[in-house]
């Protein structure tokens, strides 16, 4: 492999930022720069309040970016900063040995393939910039999730724009999940590197691998051809989504038969061939990746003329929507099909626990269905997502007219769960936050959470704690008086269900969209729970 001195990540988002931070932390000799044309985003990456929240990320970023090796007894040992954030895109690309493209590749919303094909606008623009500004011999890495054979598109650009110049193109998809990004990056199940089969391609793959072997065992780094690597990312997410749709389809059978979905999941998950992960039934998957990647696979199959294959994968998304609608319909039916005089409380707005990420959250779709019934009030509480973020997302649903109470609508967002549930006719559990569970949940021990958690804890201990900044901190202001919405999530207190039971309207409905409540315990408090995948509580 060739020596690496400088890596440039293009795209300071959920993937580029954390991946670059880990790369820099583990390779102090490499200068890692994250570039983005969005000046506001870069300012926040350079501030004490990062634009995204991931447990452990602030500590790692501070160490690599500010040169704080952490502290013993408050004394920081200096380390040379090697993580930088910049808007000077072309200059940083021109200085790099490796350029990693980590920009958004959402679903195309108009034109050919709309609703399923991948929108390559940002990716193509960045690839163009890389091809224009990179030095001869630079390795270009696709980190964004892209359609199979995207590397070919970059090759064509190179041929047209820089004939005679040689760039190797690698595919190195990212498998991190929101809320566990640092852990996933610290101890990945595998790192996939796709390259051309040529000698130069293999050298490029080994060069990139050497940046990972600083902390990942070589046996976990899988080198394959570039098309397999591009496709593997789509397939991994699609198979996970398919598993959820499969278990969710079975939950409908459970509700109609008296079988319990949690018991079925435990029973089948004990088979090592199936494994026990990703078997929790619920209101369906959300998040930025699953739907988008399944649809991208659907589009790929369609464009290859494989109608049966594309129909098969499309049904995974259809089942997800069916599951979510089934839940909303059940809530409305239980409330005698009329919500006009009723208050409903949404517990959890993020698409899953321990994240402030709201992309493709099922909460929004469920709220839309409830709105059609003209309820008296919809109250929303989330322990992690900032109120102003939820409010602005609700305001964006303009076709529904004014929705927030202060604008004359029926939706209020609360920062106190007891105000949100006071006098409510029904509580809907939308996100699986531990705070919502019937009984306190012990934090996972470092050993149970794997070695990564231990590393993160150790880092945290070494990290120099600084006092929180004042509300008028210049770091967090973006010039509009807007304060950082991703303020660190610290698990709030466990919900006091006894207190909630005392102030909700009879007959005390709670609809558990995540199967996290203990139905019997709740019954003792006078709360009637209806859970996904269970006929109990009826
Ligand atoms: C996913 C993949 O896990 C990750 O590898 C990829 O890089 C990005 O997409 P993410 O979307 O962040 O990550 O979250 P994940 O934890 O996979 O959950 C996705 C959705 O499935 C969430 O809405 C979650 O609540 C739901 N889910 C997950 C279930 O309903 N049941 C489960 O058992 C697991």
UniProtKB/TrEMBL annotation:
What GO molecular-function term can you cite, just one? Answer: UDP-glucose 6-dehydrogenase activity
Protein family: Belongs to the UDP-glucose/GDP-mannose dehydrogenase family.
Where on the tree of life does the source sit, at the highest rank?
Answer: Eukaryota
What PANTHER family does this protein's entry cite? UDP-GLUCOSE 6-DEHYDROGENASE, UDP-GLUCOSE DEHYDROGENASE/UDP-MANNAC DEHYDROGENASE
Q: Where does substrate bind?
A: 233, 278-282, 286, 352
Q: Which reaction does it catalyse?
A: UDP-alpha-D-glucose + 2 NAD(+) + H2O = UDP-alpha-D-glucuronate + 2 NADH + 3 H(+)
Quote the SMART domains the UniProt record gives.
UDPG_MGDP_dh_C (SM00984)
* UniProt KW Oxidoreductase keyword: yes
**In which residues is NAD(+) bound?**
36, 41, 105, 145, 292, 359
> InterPro entries, per this entry?
6-PGluconate_DH-like_C_sf (IPR008927), NAD(P)-bd_dom_sf (IPR036291), UDP-Glc/GDP-Man (IPR017476), UDP-Glc/GDP-Man_DH_C (IPR014027), UDP-Glc/GDP-Man_DH_C_sf (IPR036220), UDP-Glc/GDP-Man_DH_dimer (IPR014026), UDP-Glc/GDP-Man_DH_N (IPR001732), UDPglc_DH_bac (IPR028357)
Source species? Penicillium chermesinum
- Name used for this protein in its record: UDP-glucose 6-dehydrogenase
Residues forming the UDP-glucose/GDP-mannose dehydrogenase C-terminal domain are: 345-444
Q: Name one Pfam family in it.
A: UDPG_MGDP_dh
Alphabetical GO CC annotations of the entry are: nucleus
